[in-house]
## 1
Amino acid sequence: MSDMPRRCCISIDVDPIPCYYKIHSLGTPPADLRSRILCTSLPRFAAILAARDIKATFFIVAEDVDVHALGNDAIAMRAALREIRDLGHEIANHSYNHPYELARLGRIETREQLGKAHDLLSDFTGSPIRGFRAPGYDISPTTLEELIARNYLYDSSVFPAPGYYFAKALVMGALRLMGRKSGAVMTNVRALTAPIRPYHPSAEAPWRRGASSLVELPVAVTSLSRTPVIGTNLLLAPRWLRDHWLRSMAKRDFFNLEMHGIDLCDAEDDDIPSALVARQPDLRVPATVKMASLAAILDTLIASGTEMCTLREFASTIE
């Protein structure tokens, strides 16, 4: 890969609001919030990306397009997602209904989660889905085997960030002390030592190099401290720190800039309940401010000569 040009892939996890209520142990969210993130943030991403002729990868929770399960909500989300599809962005598999414990499920349940999502999303896009990201960044040998059986080109679940892992543990522990249980699950600690550059994983231990047919595309972290270089951090960091992280990524052949749909939402414009805003401070920042930050990040990358592409396009270049 040393002869390859520098490439950046924007990959966006479009997790619906019920996922955040589950993480923060907030109970059942109002029913009318289900489509809020997908229907409000995707047009914002689309406008920023289109202005720069950038194609991104959107990881979709397939239940959001399942009309039989969600009715009118799914119809509304299909309309928003259809725009993304028709603009040429990649749509990828983020499981059927985002179980954080996916890596701990048995083979039958794993197959159902991946298979149902694969079929729904492939039918929606009109072509087979080729990429996957696990809920909670936790990939298991069983999940990997099921992806290979469906001829997936890549997985992008590994997030080797010790700081994120321990921050997550603190939040989950604090909730437990308050008598509340987070719906999140701790990832396999061995994944924290995984390679930070693309690799073919071992079938028995996806966090190690091996000979699997698909390629693992890790979420970006810095080289020494393994600090996450993801959307939430970049959008909210002071400019000097953001520029420092981008310079460090410019030395890489590959930069997997992972974001979330909620990154371009805000409490006021999108009428997000105060209970969630209290747990997600980034929602207090106006969407216009975060959109301007994202535009600046992309302009910096383009000016540096970085080539922008989808994860599928990048994975197809790796032997």
## 2
Amino acid sequence: MIEIKSEREIALLREAGRIVALCHAEMKKVVRPGISTWELSKICEKIIRENGATPSFKGYGGFPEAICTSINHVVVHGIPSKKQILKEGDIIAIDIGACYKGYHGDSAWSYAVGKISHADKELMEVTQRALFAGLEAVKDGAYLNDIGSAIETYVKPYHFGIVEDFTGHGVGKELHEDPAIFNFKTSDRGPILKNGMVLAIEPMINSGTKDVRILADRWTTVTKDGSKSAHFEHTIVVRENGYEILTTL
């Protein structure tokens, strides 16, 4: 069942989202060649805790760190490490969650490490624009699958792979709530969106195949063909005439 959040709950979710956005604002400054993904995780955890929240991901299902750091062919759930040092030309998706007074904010963003290739830049730009294409389909009375349809329609001309094994989701007191939000069109239009639903919309797009595999650590998910991947995500609340982004400053 998809919960409708009260305005009191939305205010708490908005603060959780603001804290996540603070982390991303700092990531934009510090992502550079030579920094470790472990350092990035510690920076985010400090910001989250200093703002009265806790890292949503740390300990979730046994995940060991505060954020997910997914480099190049890693699609999602990359584990930060002192040994993993960013280098010129990498792209990295950083997924951040913060829990504030029992409510979660969740947002992922992809970053260029130094100067990147034209092809990688296009992949990131298309994925980011696909996120906003999906958001533009959101409003009270729309169907859930309108989101996935809009994302697929935008991405299809570029012949990139749309990851099907992972989806967006509802957000609230739980980090992952109903519904699952596909990033492609399905035969089922799904439930009708209603004012007060809170959703995390997150296209994951690969430059090659849509197919992925999970490594032995049971978290790190990579493209099957070694192609690069980008990931963008915002948590939003459905409004009568559209949506409000909660993971923003």
## 3
Amino acid sequence: MSSLLFRFFRFLLFLLPAELSHDLGLKGLRLLHQLGLSGLLKAAAPACGVTCFGLQFANPVGLAAGLDKNADYVDALGALGFGFIEVGTVTPLPQPGNPKPRLFRLQQERAIINRMGFNNKGVAHLVARLRERSYRGIVGVNIGKNLTTKVENAVDDYLICLREVYQVADYVVVNLSSPNTPGLRSLQFGEQLERLLATLVQERTRLVAEHGRKVPLLLKIAPDLSEAETASISASVIAEGFDGIIATNTTISREGVENSPFAAEGGGLSGAPVFLSSTAVLKKLSGLNDNNLPLIGVGGIMEENDARQKLEAGASLLQVYSGFIYRGPALIDDCIKAYRTRHTDV
């Protein structure tokens, strides 16, 4: 019943421009939740508790950052059966993002291209919304820098966001991998990365003393990395004391969508076409750290077998985004099934 209802709503929403349908879809979910009708769409989400970086998750399937940038819909999304929700990317100050249109559905390829540009209402709004939430599951906050902040000063923005969200976040993700903020990806490498990570870990130490709780810090990386770049990032993350890596963000490649009328649109590509590259990075990371550093696998999970391959590549947890747009809450059940099968077989 829930799958049929979701497909009906998706059909209607897909008649509209992508960003408009995105906004209306979220508002519709919130209305259903307020009316006590979330069960009409909710995944079965059987119990499948997972402990990762010191946190207890109801199940290993999370919603990736980008869908709920401002934490306006956490309760409604959480009611669909996710084990955790990641909100953001949030920046210190509100910003409008890039000019519209900036979101494109590639239905034949089961993909999405976005060049949103960290459009959000600012960290103060997000913190206020999280303080009001009734959802008791795990909530991560994905943080970034404002467009107007120079790349060499980016750490200042990340420090502001870390301090502001520290008391309302279960974990914090440092996003250096969006292709839609000029120069941001350059921070993923070498001394710039090491300094940024070290500074944030040092600030986290101070915040632990102030608030009496240690919030895990994760780094979200791009799929467009060489093996050497992946190895360098992994070494820096481990050396500087971060708690995990999210692999991966969207890709700037257009492999697999060359024939789409949207192939020439700028921005990050997500969905089925990014599966192979994101999973390759995940597998490389897993091999580098002997599975000691928790990894969240995201990128192109559209069905149960995709989830299984992410887990086999070394993922401790899974996140979905584009697959959720196309499949709805049924994908949560597919991922949980893959996880339970994988851990029964091992």
## 4
Amino acid sequence: MTDNVTKIIIVDDHPFVRQSMKRVIEKEQDLSVIREAGSAEEAIRLICREEPDLVIVDISLESEASGLDLIKTLRVRFSRIKTLVLSMHDENIYAERAFRAGAHGYITKKEAPGGIIDAIRTVMKGKPYLRGSISMALRDRLFKEKAMDEK
């Protein structure tokens, strides 16, 4: 694997979702799914060992720690790793929580398969990713607060 390949770990408690996402992502030459995890606890073990560039997290993990808990842990322990939330939940309800926890992007499972590739590329460029029905007011508020925190 070369240096310009983005190494990805997928964290979702549904094996079918993980495998489907992996198939879509690995069609891209510059993206590689290096591991999959079914829980936040398993993800942390893999992240320590594999050092991915990006972790894609289901916000509703059926494990001791939620997807939001995992994102918070990644922000504190592995700050260089980007996180992208892939969720079945409507963005207006959960996106703000995900970004406040430390996520870099949020995409719903309703998006077309190519949407995940756009989201990955955007997040890896250091830009936040939001798409779909999220309101402009929420978007502005989230990123205005983030800019203030970084000063």
